[in-house]
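INFO batch 0412 | record 1 of 1 | parsing
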Amino acid sequence: MLFPESEIISIFQDGTDSEKRQAFELLVHEYSQKLYWVIRQLVLDHDDTNDILQNTFIKAWTNINSFMGYSRLYTWLFRIAVNESLSFINRRQQTAPMDSDVQHSMAERLESDPYFDGNETERQLQEAIATLPDKQRLVFNLKYFDEMKYEDMSQLLGTSVGALKASFHLAVRKIEAYFNNID
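INFO prediction complete | emitting tokens
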């Protein structure tokens, strides 16, 4: 980041409107890609991910004055992104007749996504991940793809390390079962 986080926070608290906009542009530039992939791992679809990312930054901008500084800015933005993603998934599931239809639809969108260029095994892994409940999918993706430590996840998600380990273990077992059933 170009400026220390403490300096950006002080700009949000005491800066002019112009300075606040510039500081926020720095945040968007710094964290867009990281947040994109967090969201993408949850919703799978590129266009939905972009919409949620935009909503994340809109929500952050409108609530920046309520940021208390108890956590890092990225942690705060991460939580907004995850909450926006889970809200999106819940809205989508409410409009779908059954969970299996939603999961099948997610897998189909992944296959037709021009941004997905994985091989057959990668496609199957993404399909297996799509069958996981939201929390397990998030924990699995953060641990497996981002290699995030449980302690860091605990801070980001507000969940105990033990619960996160259990979620990851269950996710791995479900993914293994998925692969055993396709053979």
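INFO post-check: Residues 98-102 have pLDDT under 50 and may be disordered.
INFO record closed
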